[in-house]
Amino acid sequence: MRFIITLFLILQLTTLAFSAHSRDKIGLVLSGGGAKGSAHIGVLKVLEQHNIPIDYVVGTSIGAYVGGMYALGYEVSEIEAIMLGMPWDESYSDFIPRESLAYDKKQHRDRYNISIRLGYSDGEFKVPHGLLLGQSAYQILQRSTDTVRSFDSFDDLAIPYRAVASDIATAKMVVLDSGSINEAMKASAAVPGIVAAVEIDGKTLVDGGITNNMPIDVIKAMGADIVIAIDIGSPLAEQSELTSTVSVLNQLSTILTNNTSLAQKALLTDKDILLRPAIDKLSTTDWSVMPEALKLGEQEAQAQSQALMKLAISDVDYQAYKNQKKLKAKKWFDALPRHITKIKINNNSKVENDIIEKVFAVELGKKLTKEALDLAINRVYALDKFEQVTVEFDDSPEGRIITLTTQAKSWGPNYFDFGFNLKTDFSDQSITSINMSYLMTNVSMNGGRWLNELELGWESLLASEFYQPLDHSHDIYSRARVSFAQDKWEKTSFREELRNEYYQATLALGYDYSFKGIIELGVIAETGDLSLDKPGTDDFDYDSYGSFITFGYDTLDSINFPTNGNKLLIEVKWLKDEYSPQLSDVEKDTATTFALDWRGAIGIRGHTFVGIASFATIDNESDFSVHVTELGGFLNLSGYQEDALIGVHKVFAAVVYQYDLGREIPGGSGLPIYLGTSLEAGNVWGGEDRIRYNDLISSGSIYLGTDTSFGPAVLGMGFATSGEHSFFLSIGKNW
């Protein structure tokens, strides 16, 4: 049966060969235009309906994407389904989802909530080459083209293909004609300053629209006798629209791009066809316009069908043309389900290959789907040590070979991170703090790192921590930390302002049992003094030392507004305490403390239910302890001001409902805007003999919240059955 099919295809190809020699070669030029690029698909639909063959394809930016897919051999219907089904909005962010990060990196991001990338090395500050690193965009391209191999020449595709990029160093056009088609597409669309440039063959490449947004000269050089050019470039903005620096910069970019297109259009002859869909009012960055742009592309092609029909061939010849494309595409599409025989690591970082291979976790001897590949790439990228993670495939007689390439962060290896927090209940006292950390990586063998932290504001912190992996897989580690801190509790109607200044040292041995959690055993020592913000009062000294065990588990997708996952922290300490006589009736005390904090979320179509539970207790001899716990503040007994209640025993639970109405607001930005409400109950007690569960305070809140570049922002109202109530505004980290 296979022999008969093959013979049939050969006969068809022979027929096509004679036919092709007797007609002019047709080249298709697809210009750049962002989200309007789906108009190209509309045109392709009409070309296929009218039996118009395409012999060469050249594209710039989004045109390189659509053209590359078509040149690979995808049907137009497949390209439409893939392009319109991709989450293009995700390409605007390269930040790793919280749930994918390792446990310690989750906690670090929660604390340093301002999303900027700033590094320091060789005596200078460094930033990435673009606002976006391009990882998300690359993975969209990877999913679009499946696990297609690299090519020695793009002439080997079902349709000979070229992608146009620009050399940022020389401002000259670069025509990409071989290698990874994903890299070619990405380089062609890398907007300077927005998306990081792509290195290919020693050249730093960016968006091809800068030098040639409609590469008619390239298609003619490939051998096209007749050109069909599709122009989806943007028109110039009106004077009234130039109201900001960004709009002026966009206008300059449009002028530059349009000038290159005008020069290329001058190369068109009478037998060439220029299509200009009516897409001027559509945005280049709003991907929701794609269905409309597709229809407009189809309408433009239909409007010029009389000219296009002159290029049509017979049904027999067109079927033979399609068969030829399928036969050429079959060479790489048939290889996709073959098993993996070898994995090569092209590691351009100081991360050990063993760690990369362990996390990549692709099994030899098995087939690899594009979905499984996407997950594997995500796992490596989630190590948060790379600027980019890419893969290429080569096909051998034995099977498929994967080359996994990692690129170290260009702004490393030392990094600054920043955090900000503002909380107010619109009374006289507001809580403000700023945080900064400086992380030095690879400071010792096996990837040791040194973290230094500073917090200024309502509370203060100065800390230095050294983290040393103890095995090649980085599962076992040691951690040493020293710090000076000042904790404060606001003045309330029933107490003066309290302050605790202390020095603390910690030494721990830990096991990172997965990206989800850790177990630590360690020793801790602390010395400090307590004081009241009241004239005539003394400071009261204390010392505390002992051991601890910590268990942490964290899969929450967001610490601010979670929709899925759980976070659990359990900590037990065995301590020896020494107090000033003024503080306690027992100068030397033995204390065992236990604390548990849990937060879990489950979301269904914009509706999310969050559970919160917190419990703390102490077993000691004294009637006093410095090891206190607090309640008060947003979702922590709402209605009370921040940390208004202090004690050594605590019980607290809450149920929160929140609804994401951000995308439901007409004209909304698409950002999540949460409307939430909570029911809460809890209390703290100063001694075990004072615990009365009928003393539990019930409270609740209603709030609006969203994520900003400074972290979460929440505005709401809290109330409690005890009579306490408050309006509150919080910007920055809450937890």
Task: Describe the secondary-structure layout.
Blueprint: H1 2-21, E1 26-30, H2 38-49, E2 56-60, H3 62-72, H4 76-85, H5 103-111, E3 114-121, E4 124-126, E5 130-132, H6 135-145, E6 161-167, E7 172-176, H7 181-188, E8 193-195, E9 198-200, E10 203-207, H8 216-222, E11 226-230, H9 245-265, E12 273-275, H10 290-303, H11 305-309, H12 315-333, E13 340-348, H13 353-360, H14 370-381, E14 386-396, E15 399-408, E16 414-424, E17 430-444, E18 448-457, E19 460-469, E20 476-489, E21 498-514, E22 517-532, E23 540-554, E24 564-579, E25 588-604, E26 607-620, E27 629-631, E28 645-647, E29 649-660, E30 673-685, E31 697-708, E32 711-720, E33 725-732
Parallel strand pairs: 1-2, 1-11, 2-6, 5-8, 11-12, 13-15
Antiparallel strand pairs: 3-4, 3-16, 6-7, 6-10, 9-10, 14-15, 16-17, 16-33, 17-18, 18-19, 19-20, 20-21, 21-22, 22-23, 23-24, 24-25, 25-26, 26-29, 27-28, 29-30, 30-31, 31-32, 32-33
Helix pairs in contact: 1-12, 2-4, 2-10, 3-7, 6-7
CATH architecture of the largest domain: Beta Barrel
Question: Radius of gyration in whole Å, from Cα?
Answer: 31 Å
Task: Point out poorly predicted stretches.
Answer: 5-11, 15-20, 664-669
- Helical proportion, percent range: 10-25%
Instruction: Please report the total strand number as a whole number.
Output: 33
CATH H level, superfamily name of the largest domain:
membrane protein fhac: a member of the omp85/tpsb transporter family
Cα end-to-end separation: 67 Å
| Major β-sheet annotation | 16 strands, antiparallel, barrel
Number of separate helices: 14
Q: In what order do the strands lie side by side in the largest sheet?
A: 16-17-18-19-20-21-22-23-24-25-26-29-30-31-32-33
Structural class assignment: alpha+beta
How many structural domains in the coordinates?
3
Q: Strand fraction band?
A: 35-45%
Which fold does the CATH topology of the largest domain refer to? Porin
* CATH C-level category of the largest domain: Mainly Beta
**Shape, please?**
elongated
For the residues shown, what is the average pLDDT? 90
InterPro entries: Acyl_Trfase/lysoPLipase, BamA/TamA_POTRA, NTE, PNPLA_dom
Signal peptide: 1-19
GO cellular component, one term: outer membrane
Keywords: Hydrolase, Lipid degradation, Lipid metabolism, Signal
